[in-house]
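Re: the multi-chain job from yesterday

Posting the exact lines I submitted so nobody has to dig through the queue logs.
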Amino acid sequence: MKNKISCTNCKTIEILNLSDKELVNFSDKNVLSLSIDEMKSIQFYFKKLKRNPTDVEIETIAQTWSEHCKHKTLTGIIEYTEEKHFKKTKKIYNNLLKETVFKATMELNKKWCLSVFKDNAGIIEFDAKNGVAFKVETHNHPSALEPYGGSATGIGGVIRDILGVGLGAKPLANTDVFCFGNLDTKNFQVPEGMHHPKRIAKGVVAGVRDYGNRMGIPTVNGAVYFDDGYMANPLVYCGTMGIIPKNKIDKKVNSGDLILVVGGKTGRDGIHGATFSSIQLDQESDISAVQIGNPIVEKKVLDTMLKARDLNLYRSVTDCGAGGLSSAIGELGEKTGVIVYLDKVPLKYEGLAPWEIWISEAQERMVLAVPQKNKKRIVELFNKENVEAVFIGEFTKDKKLMLKYNNYVVANMDMSFLHYGIPKPKKFAVCKVKEEKIQKFIKMTSTDLSKIFKSALSDLNVCSKECIIRQYDHEVQGQTIVKPLQGADIEVSGPGDAAVIFPYIAISGTKKGIVLSNGLNPSYGKINTYKMAASAIEESLRNAVAVGADLEKMSLLDNFCWGNPNNPETLGSLVRAAIACYDMSKAFDVPFISGKDSLHNEYSIGGKKYSIPPVLLISAMGVIENVANTVTMSLKNDGNKIFVLGVTRNEIAGSVFAKIKNIKDGIVPTVYPKESKEIMKRIYKAISNGLIECCHDCSEGGLAVAISEMAFAGDKGVEVDIDAIKTKGKLGVTEILFSESNGRFIVEVIPENESKFIEIFKGCVFAEVGCVREDKYVIFESLKNKIKIKEKSRNLLKVWQNAINL
Amino acid sequence: MKKVKALILRAAGINCDYETQAAFEVCSAVAERVHVNSLIENKNKIFEYDILAFPGGFSYGDDIASGKVLANEIKNKLGDKIKKFSLSGKPVIGICNGFQVLVKMGLLPDPKLFEQISTISYNDSDKFECRWVYLKTEKKAKNESNCIWTKNLPDVITLPVAHGEGKFIPVNFKLLEELNKNNQIVFRYSTKNGTIPEYPLAPNNSVEQIAGICNTKGNVFGLMPHPERYIFALQHPARESFDGEYGWGKIIFQNVVDFVK
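And the result, structure tokens for all chains:
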């Protein structure tokens, strides 16, 4: 009986004689998310083997071939048709990612990119001996069904990505970005079977808080975006950055190495997580696909695993994420082959079938490849701090995936089929590029402008997220030196553009820092996904530059969250965004180092399908040469001069102003990389030379919002001459104040430094527009148009601070 | 010169051990992070050190109540050693979760009694609060406190807090009176001017704004704020410093390193 496939807990699945239709039904019924072509490839493979597969084998293939693990849409064939001015152009992509995002990285070929697009996270150089790793993941579907557990395991998962990159990096900071439905949604507007956006928001924040805080990793950067389109399908992005010695980046597995599973026990939670993420949500969605997290177990793994790393006790490591052991071990053993004894896997409780053990996404588990000689030492090390560590198999050399349960063979497949047997899908993408029309000037009185200005400050997408930020321990580890909330003293605050971590404990004696920022503009994407992507990239870079980062040391992560890629228009809008990634990466000379996509973000209500507004989150990370040369965004001293750098254009479409006034026309903010790049480089020079007291990026809400944020964060007043602001062509006051043109910064300069400052920016578009006032009034005035807005700085702070409470 | 040795006690869920170690090292002490399991294996090891620190975190996930599980473990398995160490006059500090542990095993406010007579409970806001606060020091009270950790501080300082359970509650008024009488209340949350604050400057609505206490002898000290997160000016949100380089936390750690020397 020994090598024959059979076992009491393991079923043989009859597929050899199924018709095409029956194959599809089989996939649907078992949450496998496999297409007809994929089912037929499986059928063909087992026909060759002259036997039916077991349930373990079918499930293994489904996990490995899932969109979540394989990214088959973005790496598959796409036939893209673009229609612009009634002219159609066609292009075939054989692998969209390789031909856009990844291509830019290859062409830029930066020496300081140490590991890109191959491991669990991207790694760039920190100093001669160390690298920094960064990864951002999504956990959307689980968070829709179970907001607390979904987001907690989202953050837990991405922390493990950092633990599982190279031989393990030490996490230094977390980031999180959420998209929710509007908080004031009426109960009757909430689709049946879905949670209210407020409940989702509260649960998600609590999940990140409880997991992140317990792990002792500061949550230092993020964003929250509200739109009705995310009501039934919220988006939850979690990111982690960590530091790793350069000599721990390479990993390999040798035949004969033992497979050690470390950390949490395996249970029935998170079954089908990987495949379920490719299925639209509805009220029947199965909650057992959501994992259950325990941060203390993961903290213990973190404490001990890095010790084992430094003692060179293992040769390779990866985390158990989507697909569980099946993915982790399948990946590690791809080149060698493995034999795994499923009955040895520590279980939370009895009664799991072999396939459940194999694909469960139970949390807090890492898989290590351990040389035979370290067998005893490594287990002792883990056990000393009460961490479970159990050998469950061995890496072989026959290139087969062999799984046994109680001495019965329950799976025996070729690794080559598992990893390369998937047929390349072909999808169609269409994009009709809409023509954007210039919005006519909107004339408003001073009173109306004042009102709109305050509505913009209290808009959910602009207002303070303090009620969330303060729930996260963003200062644990003591290395957060540019914080998410910044101010002149501890009673006032404004929104920091980016976070800076000064790893003086992790890297003793260093002066360097790591900057983290993000860019996100879903409202632009509703009109133009190319511009959304371009703006997100620029915004993330602007944010980093504003605190003192060097554009030449920046890197990017892409995270696509889109609807159903089988819809050609949805896929077309994604292709446009990917093209923008290539164009901008090249233009700014900033490489992508890692990324992730989450497709199928749609839900059905009463049989009708709704897709989310697409989102490209760009997360940026860079190395800062000297942390002493970083600045914050709060105004510092009375009498200092205020400069606006960059051009203001009539770009109102997709803006906060357009949302408030319900304006549909207009031009979406465009990126002019040549202009922006020049300004960014010179800001770095000016900050490094100590010529800038404070700097803030101008984004959602426009100039009026950005300048007042600087004022109330500094507990200062400010006076701005609207007529002095440099514009492209003639613009009205409304457009100048609320347009969201890219490429703009506001800086504060001491009068004595003015001439040196101006010298640096020679040739760029910029203007002195006002000064810091001691009387604590924020004033915007245009003599030409007889407009004057005057508000108390502290009042504006309250408007901005008190808009939401979670 | 003698090298001052500090023991930083680790356990499952403790996560401020590295920065606490770094704080002592900046003050030129030797600090070692030691896991509670290894201390239990070798109980007398504790006497090789001059200073004992219980850092912040979420020991054992703060299941049951914050710090409770670790407090019980230490009291049951290391109780007599910890008591002896404290009564010998050597400096002991509990920060945040460490303070919760000291209070829940009863090492504070009275190590001689070594029984829990006060507690630290949920913030009135019912939220985890990560923010900077003003702290009024007891320096200018009628009788200056004995606390060896908080000497050389001005009337009001700033430090960050980060906790969900920080509301200090003594068992009864009598104890509160005693704490006041003996100058054991070392830090109280305050406004910038040293007056009684409201939320959020009073982050947890602690009884009499208590943020930190010591024993009567002044060597055992517990506080909710994090002095180890304000060693350098760069760590302050507005980068303030009393001398251009260091933050108030540095003085707290330097005080005991100098005391031991």
